Amino acid sequence: MADMKQTFLGVGYTRDRAGLPLEAVRVPVPRPTADEVLIRVAASSLNPLEYKLADLNFMGRTPPVVLGFDLAGVVAAVGRDVEGVAVGDEVAAMAGLNGDGGWAATGGDGGSYAVAPCFLTVRKPTSVSFRDAAALPMCFLSAFAGLYGAVQAGATVYVPGGGGGVGHLAVQMAARALDAGTVISSGGRPQSITLARQSGAHFVFDYKRDDVAVEIAELTHGRGVDLVFDATYNEQSFAETAKTVRRGGSWIVLGVGPGRTTRLAETHSPVDATLAGRGARHVNVNLLRYFSEPAMLDGEARGFLQRGMDLAMEWAAKGLVVPHVSQTVDSTVEAISTGLRSLKEGGGALGKIAVIVDRDLAAGT
Ligand SMILES: NC(=O)c1ccc[n+]([C@@H]2O[C@H](COP(=O)([O-])OP(=O)(O)OC[C@H]3O[C@@H](n4cnc5c(N)ncnc54)[C@H](OP(=O)(O)O)[C@@H]3O)[C@@H](O)[C@H]2O)c1
Questions:
Q1: Cβ neighbours for 218, distance < 8 A, ≥ 6 positions apart
Q2: Fold adopted by 7-135+322-362
Q3: Mutational pocket test of ligand 1: of 254, 287, 352, the residue with most ligand atoms within 8 Å of the beta carbon
Q4: Pairing mode, if any, of strands 182-187 and 203-206?
Q5: Of 65, 121, 188, 287, which is most buried by a Cβ count within 10 Å?
Q6: pLDDT classification of 2: cutoffs 50, 70, 90
């Protein structure tokens, strides 16, 4: 680390609950602890979590906080206990969600560094670009946490919102990597419906126009689907998708779940009553909990997430689960804030929005 810069100009928030737009903030280059990897960042991508943290600061961080948790780049230094990656390796990683990310306010001229836990850092195959590698970690791990080990070969699976960041990867994972028999999805816009179909969904409904629960009942001869994975974070969707699970099936939700989506107040949700009427299981998967309740991040959880990162690269290289990057933006406060605003307002982004943090490094592959 001898000739490395001491500080860089990151993008994040400098006041508690400051919200959008984000700000440029000069911060020290982080130092990796024993089991962390320091990454010189080439590319990143946008996730709704980033505007939610800027709005609500619910991890209780003391600002300034640099955002940009999805990372692809080159290893600049490793902690003493790190195995499997070395200085100079091209990697994909997810930064710890209770720490800082890697967006730089340099318009693509690079200069940013972020640390990631070594179990969330994997070597990037040369056939996967930095941009695509950076579009995967958070959304892929979310889909993986919901579906891996839960989808049986031949199962009928419903993933609402198959044009979303998590949704389009979940559809591909179920249909192409986990051998589901039938994958059903939905979208509220023609382009989302197209992306869900391109991702491998066999049937895609328009959730704004169709009565999806009735359509799915017809498709499955009144039985319902074996498994729902709802990553829409939307109460209206939760209430509707719960009605599509078969008796004894599983309803898997990403995040804090029904009644809590605003994080500000609890609302009444009919989901548990609907599921109880079907003897169906309600399962929550939540990446954030590993970082808000560190006791959850035991050896088994670390191993599971590491397996997820390995498979993200393996399946991307094989063309099984490939991110759809609908927009690529330079790493500026304005472009990142505009992209996050479109995620917040809905109806703008499709698949993933990538951020090129270091144009020269990212052009390497
Ligand atoms: N806690 C965790 O572990 C964790 C991890 C990752 C993500 N998340 C959360 O998960 C959510 C999704 O993330 P993302 O990156 O996939 O966001 P995204 O790209 O904005 O996708 C949201 C999707 O939801 C769909 N949708 C909205 N309302 C719907 C409804 N009523 N019925 C069916 N689909 C509906 C949208 O479809 P149209 O655009 O077609 O309307 C869109 O495809 C975010 O709130 C994020 O913060 C949580």
A1: none
A2: Quinone Oxidoreductase; Chain A, domain 1 (3.90.180)
A3: 254
A4: parallel
A5: 121
A6: low
Look at the block and give the residue holding tokens 């290289």.
Answer: 317
Place of tokens 């700000």: 23
- CATH 3.40.50.720 positions along the chain are 140-287
Which residues of the chain does CATH 3.90.180.10 include? Answer: 7-135+322-362
> Which residues neighbour 193 within 8 Å (Cβ) at sequence distance 6 or greater?
162, 163, 186, 187, 204, 206
CATH number of the structural domain 140-287: 3.40.50.720
Question: Nearest-CA neighbor of 40 among 77, 81, 94?
Answer: 77
Q: Taking a C-beta distance cutoff of 8 angstroms, is the pair 49, 141 a contact?
A: no
| 194-226 per-position pLDDT tens digit | 999 999 999 999 999 999 999 999 999 999 999
> Could you give the CA distance from residue 155 to residue 286 in angstroms, rounded to a whole number?
23
Q: Calculate how far, in angstroms, residue 203's C-alpha sits from the geometric centre of ligand 1.
A: 19
Question: For ligand 1, is residue 351 a contact (CB within 6 Å)?
Answer: no
Task: Give the tokens for residue 21.
Answer: 């737009």
